[in-house]
């Protein structure tokens, strides 16, 4: 028998969207590294803990890392498999009490509340995604004095075997413009590219480019 879910479930979930991500996660026992994303860790390390919203949390590397540093985290994803893995890993890490896990299809609904940190890490999808609308909703969820951190892929990985002529990666300036933040209400703390070493599917390594926007609500 399947145990009942221990997290709220958004009833407005697109079946095709959910099916795509379920298939991706069910292909492997683990999809992501389980470590916190590098830019997130760098940004958060000096901050006092507060309330955080992790959008597209996947298997929970960021959420568990934040909770381990005293943050109260709301972790959101559309994949039940990913959320089940997050819940199990958070329990093993002893931080489950600081993580609220919820299933949302961000193309349709958005979690309520205000947060000291809203993190959108690689919120890019091969499926249709109203990205700008989601990111603007993310900005609205930032509490006064809080921060919005958006990190996106800035270029295809060097091991990509196929070129996609219609694929386009927004620049940091374009990401910031799409957020449509009121200049008198926000201060941009970071805008640019970050580089890190990644490992491809066949064990090859290369430099990956991430585009970063960090803005603080006044």
From TrEMBL:
<protein>
    <submittedName>
        <fullName>Methyltransferase family protein</fullName>
    </submittedName>
</protein>
<feature type="domain" description="Methyltransferase">
    <location>
        <begin position="53"/>
        <end position="146"/>
    </location>
</feature>
<dbReference type="GO" id="GO:0032259">
    <property type="term" value="P:methylation"/>
</dbReference>
<keyword id="KW-0808">Transferase</keyword>
<dbReference type="InterPro" id="IPR029063">
    <property type="entry name" value="SAM-dependent_MTases_sf"/>
</dbReference>
<keyword id="KW-0489">Methyltransferase</keyword>
<keyword id="KW-0949">S-adenosyl-L-methionine</keyword>
<dbReference type="GO" id="GO:0008168">
    <property type="term" value="F:methyltransferase activity"/>
</dbReference>
<dbReference type="InterPro" id="IPR041698">
    <property type="entry name" value="Methyltransf_25"/>
</dbReference>
<dbReference type="Pfam" id="PF13649">
    <property type="entry name" value="Methyltransf_25"/>
</dbReference>
């Amino acid at each position: 028998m399947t145990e009942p879910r221990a997290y709220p479930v958004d009833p407005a979930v697109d079946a095709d969207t959910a099916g795509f991500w379920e298939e991706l996660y069910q292909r492997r026992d683990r999809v992501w590294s389980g470590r916190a994303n590098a830019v997130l860790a760098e940004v958060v390390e000096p901050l006092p803990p507060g309330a955080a919203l992790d959008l597209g949390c996947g298997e929970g590397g960021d959420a568990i890392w934040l909770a381990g540093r005293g943050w109260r985290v709301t972790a959101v994803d559309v994949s039940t498999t990913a959320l089940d893995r997050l819940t199990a890993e958070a329990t093993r890490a002893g931080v489950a009490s600081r993580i609220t896990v919820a299933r949302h299809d961000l193309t349709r609904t958005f979690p309520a509340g205000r947060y000291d940190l809203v993190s959108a890490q690689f919120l890019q999808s091969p499926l249709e995604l109203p990205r700008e609308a989601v990111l603007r909703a993310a900005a609205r969820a930032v509490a006064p004095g809080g921060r919005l951190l958006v990190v996106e892929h800035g270029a295809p990985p060097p091991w990509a075997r196929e070129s996609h002529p219609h694929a386009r990666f927004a620049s940091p300036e374009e990401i910031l413009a799409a957020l449509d933040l009121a200049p008198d209400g926000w201060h941009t703390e970071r805008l640019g590219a970050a580089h890190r070493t990644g490992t491809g599917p066949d064990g090859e390594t290369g430099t990956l480019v991430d585009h970063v926007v960090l803005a603080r609500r006044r």
